[in-house]
Write a structure and sequence with these properties.
Shape: globular
Number of helices: 7
Structural class: alpha/beta
Number of domains: 1
Largest sheet: 6 strands, parallel
Distance between the termini: 30 Å
Strand order of the largest sheet: 1-2-3-4-5-6
Length: about 240
């Protein structure tokens, strides 16, 4: 997306350069937006190159605008945990302010079992509301129920784009069933680019055989987000 909008942070092949841009002017947006809005902070606020003073300004902006919902997603929950111990505190009591910030959800994204095992424990050390984004889901993931119950939301989605990898329905079903058992809202964004193909279609030449069966690339829209005859749209923040 950064490459598409020509923000100067990618090379000629669309690969990220590792640099970041701080845009302090954007901090005024929640103040100017009167209608309650869900703000998705997907640009990894906790990258190592984002300075603490800027994170602090963002944190104060979110605390000062509680008519909105903020979803703060990172691949670096270890730094989020470190920063939380320094900044996410009530200015008067010194106690963790995140524990009473009902409008802020902190999340981490995982793709496979390894990243889930590495990242989830860091996020769960932070007080307050938390969500888990399994995107793109690249293999079956099992989350211990004791950990899963500490989440307020789980989101699952497949990979999109030219080099999108496969997402098998059974992987999604597994997380859906784990969430149902643990009483955690489950939202399925979609299969990405691929759909499952059944035995009567096996003679087609455009099939890909993966770890768990035959798949056909049909594109994001055609792949859709129907799982076992329905969509899964539960979102914890839509009930606030």
């Amino acid at each position: 997306m950064t490459h598409r909008f020509k923000q100067g942070l990618t090379d000629d092949k669309g690969r990220w350069t590792g640099e970041i841009i701080i845009r302090e002017s954007r901090l005024a947006l929640p103040f100017r937006t009167k209608k309650p809005t869900v703000w998705a902070v997907w640009n990894d606020l906790f990258h190592e190159k984002v300075p603490l003073d800027f994170i602090s300004k963002i944190w104060m902006t979110m605390l000062s605008n509680n008519r909105h919902i903020y979803l703060v997603l990172t691949k670096r929950p270890h730094r989020m945990q470190e920063v939380a111990n320094l900044l996410f505190r009530d200015l008067v009591t010194g106690k963790p302010a995140i524990s009473t910030a009902e409008h802020i959800y902190l999340g981490t994204t995982v793709e496979n079992q390894q990243t889930a095992d590495e990242r989830i424990p860091h996020l769960l050390q932070i007080e307050g509301k938390k969500f888990l984004s399994i995107e793109p889901m690249l293999e079956k993931i099992i989350i211990p129920q004791k950990r899963l119950k500490q989440f307020d939301q789980v989101i699952v989605g497949g990979e999109t784009g030219q080099k999108a990898r496969l997402l098998y329905p059974d992987w999604v079903r597994s997380v859906r069933d784990q969430c149902q058992t643990s009483g955690v809202p489950f939202f399925f964004k979609g299969f990405g680019e691929w759909v499952e193909v059944f035995s009567d279609d096996y003679r087609d030449s455009d099939l890909t055989f993966g770890l768990e069966g035959f798949m056909r690339r049909v594109g994001k829209r055609a792949a859709g987000r129907i799982l076992d005859g329905r969509t899964h749209d539960d979102l914890a923040w839509s009930k606030n």
